[in-house]
Design goal:
Blueprint (H helix, E strand, L loop, with lengths): L2 H13 L10 E7 L3 H15 L2 E7 L1 H9 L6 E3 L3 H9 L9 E5 L2 E5 L15 H5 L4 E4 L5 H12 L3 H4 L3 E4 L2 H9 L5 E5 H4 L6 E5 L9 E6 L7 H8 L3 H9 L3 E2 L2
Parallel strand pairs: 1-2, 1-3, 6-7, 6-8
Antiparallel strand pairs: 3-10, 4-10, 4-11, 5-8, 5-9
Helix pairs in contact: 1-2, 1-11, 2-11, 3-4
Length: 255
């Protein structure tokens, strides 16, 4: 049995304990792009067990939060940083009692060359020298969480100014990974979960956890949601089977 089928079996068994809706409903989820691989599996099996339908919109947490601020209809928001969930909370756009932090992650450096040598990411790391005249892919450093964490770490190491001219910024972390996949950037800063199963890149180093703010994924029901099943779906993300899916994809499960 493959890892995917084993994990799917786990979530199916856990989903049997969920209440099945008497009438199918649509749940709209806005989720950070780094969640896509795991959340697609979890949502599909939840649909099979409940008869409900989950529509998931993936993008950077910043863009999704701004869409909610502008009135975009969503029932659940899952952010890749506390900052953007806080922004919605401050604007009274989430139900505060529903908010919980479900996941963590690790920031890593990936290389387009599968044979690239490992590096030690610490004070004195000469990333600019490693890059030479090549490019480093990152999410937008002022708004995309992975880009923000990356810039913070590079700043703490005192190397941001040297690296900045070599950075190609993208609208979300998956787009940064794609640039490395396509060898359009020699290196990229992404999450550990993004690189799981990606045979086109090499993971060459991990950023120390204390080099940036903690990477957390808060989730909440939006204030505008009228679907009781939205809470059921949010609760399902913390079931053991869903946790197994997330962990297999490289996330740190927080309970």
């Amino acid at each position: 049995m493959t890892r995917r089928s084993t994990l799917t079996a786990l979530i199916l068994s856990a989903a049997l304990a969920m209440p099945v809706a008497s009438h199918a409903v649509d749940i709209t989820v806005f989720a950070a792009s780094s969640l896509k691989t795991a959340l697609d599996v979890i949502a599909a099996d939840w649909e099979n067990q409940t008869g409900n339908h989950v529509v998931i919109s993936y993008d950077s947490s910043a863009k999704l939060a701004k869409q909610i601020e502008q009135g975009a209809p969503a029932d659940v928001f899952i952010s890749a940083s506390k900052q953007w969930m806080d922004a919605l909370a401050d604007a009274n756009l989430i139900k505060p009692e529903s908010r919980k932090t479900i996941l963590g992650n690790t920031l890593i450096l990936v290389a387009a060359d599968p044979a690239a040598a490992p590096v030690t990411i610490a004070q004195g790391f000469d990333l600019a020298g490693l890059l030479g005249d090549r490019k480093l892919a990152m999410g937008l450093v002022e708004s995309v969480p992975a880009g923000q964490y990356g810039k913070e770490a590079l700043t703490n190491f005192g190397i941001w100014d040297a690296v900045a001219p070599k950075v190609v910024q993208t609208e979300n972390v998956r787009a940064a990974l794609k640039l490395v996949d396509n060898a359009e950037a020699a290196y990229g800063i992404v999450y550990a979960s993004d690189a799981v199963g990606d045979t086109q890149v090499a993971v060459v180093g991990s950023f120390p956890a204390d080099s940036h703010k903690p990477i957390v994924y808060p989730a909440a029901i939006t204030a505008s949601s009228t679907q009781p099943e939205a809470q059921v779906f949010l609760d399902a993300l913390s079931l053991d089977a869903a946790s197994a899916i997330f962990a297999a994809q490289g996330f740190i499960v927080l309970k």
